[in-house]
Amino acid sequence: MEAHLTEWLNLSIRWVHMITGIAWIGASFYFVWLENNLNRKNPRDGLAGDLWAIHGGGIYHLEKYKLAPPKMPDNLHWFKWEAYWTWMSGVALLMVVYYLNPSLYLIAPGSDMAPAVAIAIGLGSLVAGYVAYHFLCDSALGKRPALLGAVLFVLLIAAAYGFSLIFSGRAAYLHVGAIIGTIMVGNVFFTIMPAQRALVKAIEDNTTPDPSLPAKGLLRSRHNNYFTLPVLFIMISNHFPSTYGSQYSWLILAGIAIFAVLVRHYFNTRHDSNKFAWTLPAAALGMICLAYVTSPMRPAPSATPVAAQASQPAAVVAQAEHASEAPLAATQTETPAAAGNPDFTKVNGVIQERCAVCHSATPSSPMFSAAPAGLILDTPQQIQQQAAKIQAQAVASQVMPLGNITQMTQEERNLIGAWIAQGAKLD
Question: Cβ contacts of residue 27 below 8 Å, gap of 6+?
Fold first, then answer.
């Protein structure tokens, strides 16, 4: 029952996170688009520009003041709770998924780090990330946006590399996303909202507003806009083990983040000209290159039968696996092939002992009330049908079993990989 309740708690919080995140991101995209597309030619006195738009069967006329209207309207709409609820639900989800089961989801397999220490590092990184960002923005570096962006990028990827040494691949990615999300909501709470309140108060007090505060809020809003697509990728990354499961996961994250920023920059600037149109094909080409370099190497033929190789000491197998240089695409170890077809009886035994405790119609693991992702490996036919997924997650990226909780050995991974390489036959 506990696993069932945890699953529904996870679902409920994740749903709130998704709904509020869509609202926040949608507002961010819309207002940046609005700012970029204002007609600034000969605006009416006191205006920075205006814009006409049609949507949903109606025509809208929007105006932006240079600073503020002479008198505040009776109804003024604020945009803040989308950001706050997205962050609160995200932190709650981080706690439910990773901090309630740190040994399974948070800590890297084989690590002897205490769960309390890992959780403290995770939470501390959120605070440290925002403090460092805020300090850099308020420093002299803040007056050089391109250089500031480069420094922030390097620091975030350095964090990704550090997390990859102590956390599981999924947890490392999610904590980078959590740092970015904390920076984004910090921008709303500590910079954008105070600037808006000061502007409204100045108008109500009939005093001249300070123009530097809205300008600062607009800059932080643009930062949030560029952060959005990398965060969205991180939110879906746990479905793609070839990214977070690679030994070069931090480099893959760096590449995808760059491509995401390029795409965002095109959409932010296309109103002005098409001089950044090259960013779209560049990002597409970059993704193709990443797909190529992260593909697992094909197993090389070996004269040693799998059964004999599986019985060799781990050190001997490891030495053989590292005899050839692996490219960026390679995962931590290669999967040797066999001269003959591996015995499925042994493969089935390994999968039932190491995988089916969770991936079963009736999981024996107390962690799950139903098979994760609906993947069931009870019968030989089910195992054969899911051979590609088993190869990707248990052999190539080795992100499964989660936290290696069932202690799958390298020899067992080699055995499964060789069976799949020989055609995943059941006879």
Answer: 79, 82
